[in-house]
Give the backbone structure.
Amino acid sequence: MKLHIVLFCLLALLSLSIGCATPRGGQTVSERELKIHIDLAESYIRSGEPRRAVKELLPLADQGQKDWRYHYALGHAYLLLDELAASEKEFQACVKIEPGSGDGWNSLGFVLMSRNKIAQAQEAFAKALAMIDYLTPELPAYNMARSYLEQGDETMTIEYARISIDKNWRYAPAYVLLARTLVSIDRVDEAQEWLEKGVESNLESPALQLALAENLVRKGNNAEARTWFTRIANDFPETQEAKMAGDYLDLLP
């Protein structure tokens, strides 16, 4: 299971809290009971058990067909199972029922991008970004940046990565994406400036600190890089970034 998909699903499920209704297996299911089933499925998704989520949701298919949150949860379960066509179908149903769901549009865009339907994905991200009441606009902005990177368009990647940062100045992935894109077009000093801003804004991101340390190596500042690699290894010992930092420390003079 790809880590970026797992992280996406966890982020996407953080703020949902509403639900819908009716019968299950010949019995009448109240709105509250249906909400409980969807809540349980979402808890399975958050704990990395998408098959249990699907098992919880599929018996509710007839009743849940008019509930956008039902489709939203099932879409994420299928996404974690790498069933991308099924996931896309559920997210399409979600935004058809609730076109005002920024999370729904962002999730649909993510799946479309995963299926290499880049133009359609960008349309979905744009719809999410256009919603003034959407609480996490940094997510579709970041995903839009990634979609342009897939197309090899560094200019638009940089633009949307900066938009993501403007929407949430502590959103570490946007800083990392922006810096790596700048490095790819030989704007190393500018990348360094953004990484320093990012670390100042979010001291809890080992990925951001690792990107900063790597860029210091790139600039030939091995002493300062060593300080950052050591900090990562000490402060985030169980992470992949700590392992990579240890490898760098073994190699640096």
Remarks:
- The first helix runs from residue 3 to 12.
